[in-house]
User: Fold this.
Amino acid sequence: MKINCFILDIHSEQLFFTLCSEKTQYKDKIKAMFSLAPIAFLKHMISPLLLVVSKFRTAILALYNILNTYEFLPRNKFLAQLGDTLCNDNSTF
Assistant:
């Protein structure tokens, strides 16, 4: 039997990863898995870009709160207008 996809929370994803690593025959039976929880932590990151971004974490979170946006790559009227203004061919950016 082939299973099309799984949508898992933090507890189920751990079981899923364990199942697929221990019982490799299940890998071929599952088409997709969507994890709704983090699989890694950035506590010991070494990327210079992420280190710089992490310095501005509080400001970035404040901006998200001001914009009432809590998504990764959100799309709404304000952000669309801002993007059109800043990223057009005549923009100085």
Summary: The CA atoms of residues 53 and 60 lie 9 Å apart. The radius of gyration is 20 Å.
